[in-house]
Amino acid sequence: MTSQKVLMVAEKPSIAVSIASVLSRGQMSTRKGATDVHEFNAMFLGFRAQYKVTSVIGHVFSVDFPAAYQDRTATDPLDLFQAQVVKSAANPKAHIPRHLSQEARGCTHLVLWLDCDREGENICFEVIECSGFTMNSRNGRVYRARFSSISEKDILKAMDNLVEPNRNEALAVDARQEIDLKVGVAFTRFQTNYFQGKYGNLDARVISYGPCQTPTLGFCVQRYLQISTFKPEKFWTLHPYIFQNGHEVKLEWERQKLFDVNVGMMFQKLVLEDGILDVTEISEKQESKGRPVGLNTVNLLKVASSALGFGPQMAMQLAERLYTQGFISYPRTESTAYPSSFDFRGTLAALVNNPTTGSYAEKLLSEGFQKPRGGVDVGDHPPITPVKSAKEDMLGIDAWRLYQYVCQHFLGSVSPDCKYIRTRVEFTIGGESFHCTGQRTVVEGFTYIMPWLGISEKNLPQFMKGEKLEVSKVELYEGSTSAPDYLSESELISLMEKNGIGTDASIPVHINNICERNYVQVQPGRKLVPTALGISLIRGYQCIDPDLCLPDIRSFIEQQITLVAKGQVEHSRVVQHVLQQFKQKFIYFVQQVINFLIFLRHCDAQVDMARSFWHK
DNA sequence: GCAAGGTC
């Protein structure tokens, strides 16, 4: 009897290695190709089988317009909405389609090990197309492996529960690709044609629009507008002072702020006339600051920007290198919960040779470490953790600093919580209430290894309830409300994540885009300051159609394609419906812009007439 | 050469 031949395809080479290692128990032979192919013999569905495990490198295809629409001077952007879209190799140099079709030859079964998300489901069908397999054919069968992590347990479990790939989820991605392409390119071509060199000094090669990049820019400009329209306001507050056991203590007012100096002076007089503070309440409460959950990509990017000064693009490049050199685990993950099978002891042991964090890792090993807090498991990859110890000269200064943070975060996540005692003393004087607070650390916990998160110690002298104290002075402090600062890159990342703009992998790309297109500039402290061009663009959308630069535009697309993913509405109906709406917006936008440009030309003509009149 | 999403 001839044996079965099984082809397995993963989303990236490293996953193919993991799957082949588990299923062959390490007994595989690897041969080079467009991507490596791992071969071995094992049982498959009760029969002896020859296995080949290989991978793609992300998407095999990407969508674009046919050649006829590529010449932007010869095409009306409005026609793009009803144009055909064609798929072509995402990376022609990699020759992935040819690789898949060659390896599939003679195979009786195809098992798809793509990442278990919508994009992965879409890549499943790209692989099916290249391999020549068809769903439900007699001579070859197609299976989908659904795995929640790349552990031996989950891989074997997925093998015992093979399912079919989900066509609807794949179609939802097709819908998004077509909508993003048509909307983005139509607006971008129109804007570039009409704004470039037309007026002002908005000189730029391309003036782009996109349902992710434009709301991203919108966040930066929104903050800029808050700053530029901010009107500072004076305020007053009372601070009584006392001397207790040789310490001067400044008290805070329950009313916090007043915006009228006369009322402030009245209260100051009341307090001074009384002159005696009554201690009405003393409370001590133990508070806890929780250790961090596992590190995911977005949180790594935020820390890299705010604490290490690395932009997201650079942070990902450094992380990628640390990953391929085996120092940290896979750096693209949404999960913050460690899998149940995670080897904490092994990871700690791997760090004991680290010059700076090694002794702390050793201490956790000998004295015991904590089970990490919950977090979320999205089922993609485990949180980002160190894998082996390193020294600075092995990595270079930047990679070393990022690696150090990954170590500190991991160690922090298996350390005790930080415990501290908060003391609050309440006073009354002249009918007004004041208080002071102190705090002291009881258990340092994870803040030992992440000292910047530590509790700032504030000691208070002893007080007794019912005690009466003489006030030493009563300050009427005059302050001024201040404008917020420019949006920091790490705040922007938080806003994007919260509003569903981009993914962990694409957030750095969008931020990089708005910088490279000269819409914002990164200033010291990684603050994002919009340029004249960026401000003009967003103000333009705000005048014509504010939806265009709001994050809801992305949520709307996501929500519509989810109907496809769930099989509730047909793919083509959703695409038509969404494109129809964007086409209306596009037409209105074009009309308004053209009217405005006509108006400007009219103004110029008036100015010219006035000039020639006065210069006669 | 314009979008956004994979991954390198």
What does this structure look like?
With 616 residues, this protein is α+β, with helices and mostly antiparallel strands. The strands form 5 sheets. The protein has a 6-stranded mixed beta sheet, with helices on both faces. Strands 11-14-13-12-15 form a 5-stranded antiparallel beta sheet. The protein has helices at 13-24, 96-104, 118-131, 152-160, 167-195, 213-228, 261-274, 297-308, 312-324, 344-350, 358-367, 392-395, 397-413, 489-498, 507-516, 532-544, 552-565, 571-614, and strands spanning 4-10, 29-31, 37-44, 47-55, 61-64, 86-89, 109-113, 141-144, 234-244, 247-250, 252-253, 276-289, 418-429, 432-443, 468-470, 473-480, 487-488, 520-523, 527-530. The protein folds into 4 domains: 4-165, Rossmann fold (3-Layer(aba) Sandwich), CATH 3.40.50.140; 171-229 and 486-605, Orthogonal Bundle (Topoisomerase I, domain 2); 236-290 and 422-446 and 457-480, Distorted Sandwich (Topoisomerase I, domain 3), CATH 2.70.20; 297-413, Orthogonal Bundle (Topoisomerase I, domain 4). It binds one DNA strand of 8 nucleotides through residues 11-13, 56-60, 62-63, 70, 72, 90-91, 94, 115, 119-120, 122-123, 173, 176-177, 179-189, 192, 205-206, 208-213, 320, 324, 332, 502-503, 505-506, 509-510.
